[in-house]
Specification:
Layout lengths: L1 E2 L4 E2 L10 E5 L14 E7 L2 E5 L3 E2 L3 E5 L5 E6 L10 E2 L1 E8 L6 E8 L2 H13 L3 E3 L8 E2 L3 E6 L4 E3 L2 E3 L12 E4 L7 E7 L5 E7 L1 H9 L7 H7 L1 H7 L4 H9 L5 H8 L9 H13 L1 H14 L1 H10 L1
Antiparallel strand pairs: 1-8, 2-8, 3-7, 4-5, 4-8, 6-7, 9-13, 10-11, 10-12, 11-17, 14-16, 14-18, 15-17, 18-19
């Protein structure tokens, strides 16, 4: 058996009011090598797994008529020992991680399942990964096949080989790390079918794209609303304040005495006390001071601001 779509937990009251439901699958149709009779709907009940053939199978979903509801999803039955190449609608996810001396990317090759994508987005966000906008492979990829990740000559890639498989969203997903140095020039990334030597995916990443993602947070919030919403995170995460304090003094928000008050705050007295003092002093100065503080943080710590803006 092969997992062919996400798992759903559906309940309906009263029962019998739904004539049919459409359960999405990841199998690429039409495809002559896929037999429609292989599709089954798996119901997971107290007594175990119960299989039911769908009424019909369409390009992106299977239809179940007069359904009974439980934990359910689409399975594909493959003959034992059969070497069938099952075409899968797939996607490539590329995440950017900023480091001053060595820019890093994470590349995932997964079935096109929104639950998988969401799980990976959430995991990458924990480590400040920013997803770049890329196109999916134009043609379906084959389940269980192996693909080679390559690119510009100076790139370091580990591992260089990815296998297209379907892991539960709760599991750690397999990805390739790509190290690109300081990214002063555009880079090319490619994915090639290991067996057939055919190119299945290609993308170009330019340094200007990374500057945009790092320095231009997508949040529509005003500076005042952003600071209010993220006060606790800023208090915990702000690092070196010297550059920000210089900006505030140069802009007339802080006097020399106020700047020194923050700098000389005894850090042993209270954890993150210096950050808290800075935030409260700026907030008391009003919206214009918050706007200047906001722009300074965008310039001085673009990675943190990009991360917080995505959360907002």
């Amino acid at each position: 058996w092969m997992v062919a779509g996400p798992l759903f937990d559906i309940s309906v009251e009263p029962e019998g009011v739904i004539a049919e439901i459409h359960l999405p699958h990841i199998i690429s149709l039409p495809a002559n090598e896929v037999d429609m009779s292989w599709f089954h709907v798996a119901h997971f009940k107290d007594e175990g797994m119960v299989l039911e053939p769908p009424a019909r199978v369409e390009c992106f979903y299977a239809v179940l008529e007069n359904p009974s509801f439980s934990l359910m999803g689409i399975l594909l039955r493959l003959a034992s020992g059969a070497r069938v190449s099952v075409p899968i609608t797939s996607t490539a996810l590329l995440y950017y991680h900023f480091y001053p001396e060595d820019t890093k990317f994470h590349l995932y090759l997964i079935p096109s399942d929104s639950l998988l994508t969401k799980a990976i987005d959430e995991e990458e966000t924990k480590f400040h990964g920013v997803r770049l906008q890329t196109s999916p492979p134009v043609e379906p990829l084959n389940f269980g096949s192996r693909y080679i990740v390559s690119g510009s000559a100076h790139l370091e890639i580990m591992p260089e080989e990815l296998k297209l498989s379907y892991r539960s969203p709760g599991e750690i997903q397999v990805f390739s790390k790509v190290f690109a140095g300081k990214m002063e020039e555009p880079i090319i990334l490619e994915v090639t079918d290991k067996r057939h030597k055919t190119l299945v995916w290609r993308t170009l990443v330019k340094p200007v794209e990374l500057q945009f993602y790092a320095a231009s947070p997508p949040s529509p919030l005003s500076a005042e609303a952003f600071m209010k919403e993220n006060h606790r995170h800023l208090q915990a995460r702000l690092g070196d304040l010297s550059g920000v304090l210089d900006d505030l003094q140069d802009s007339g928000v802080f006097t020399e005495e106020e700047k020194e008050l923050v700098q000389q705050f005894p850090t042993r007295q209270r954890k993150n006390g210096k950050n808290e003092t800075l935030l409260r002093m700026v907030e008391k100065k009003g919206p214009q001071a918050l706007e200047i503080f906001f722009r300074s943080l965008q310039q001085r710590d673009p990675y943190l601001m990009s991360y917080l803006s995505q959360q907002s």
